Amino acid sequence: MSETRLATRTVFVLNRGARLCLLLAVLMMAFAGWLLFAPIDIQSREGPMFNCGSAARPPSEVFQRNVCGRLAQGRQIETGFAAGAALITGIGGLFVFGASRRTEEVRVDPADDEDR
């Protein structure tokens, strides 16, 4: 029968607050992506009157730019603020709540070492 020995390993685990902040940051980044690619429409009572592109592809023709004005530019700014808020939330959550480090003992079978 082979003899087992104990080895130690260090495990890093994010605290609950850091995980929550990272989850919120991912959701906010998804919202920023939606803002970037969602179509911008000028609405009327009957439905969408004019398509103004999106923040990723603003109108390029003169007529479209005159009708839409600065809607795409405003959406680009909103996208930037949402992405910035996501980064601040994620990095700030990691900084404030951090991670825990603990040492665990693990049984190591000598037969596993011989296979390598």
Order of helices and strands: EHEEHHEH
Shape: rod-shaped
- Proportion in β-strands: 25-35%
* Beginning-to-end CA distance, first to last residue: 20 Å
Biggest pleated sheet: 2 strands, antiparallel
Query: What is the radius of gyration?
Result: 26 Å
Total of domains: 1
The helix content is 40-55%
**Count of DSSP strands:** 4
Helix vs. strand class: alpha+beta
The whole-number mean of residue pLDDT values reads: 88
Number of helices: 4
Poorly predicted runs of 5 or more residues:
none
Identify the strand order in the major beta sheet: 1-4
SSE arrangement:
Blueprint: E1 5-14, H1 16-37, E2 41-44, E3 47-51, H2 62-68, H3 71-97, E4 99-108, H4 110-115
Antiparallel strand pairs: 1-4, 2-3
Helix pairs in contact: 1-3
Main features:
alpha+beta; two-stranded antiparallel sheet; 4 helices; 4 strands; 25% strand
Write a compact overview of the structure shown.
The protein is 53% helix and 25% strand. It is α+β, with helices and mostly antiparallel strands. It has one domain (5-115).
Task: Tell me about this structure.
This protein has helices at 16-37, 62-68, 71-97, 110-115, and strands at 5-14, 41-44, 47-51, 99-108. With 116 residues, the protein is an alpha+beta fold. The protein has one domain (5-115). A two-stranded antiparallel sheet has the order 1-4. The model has no long low-confidence stretch (mean pLDDT 88).
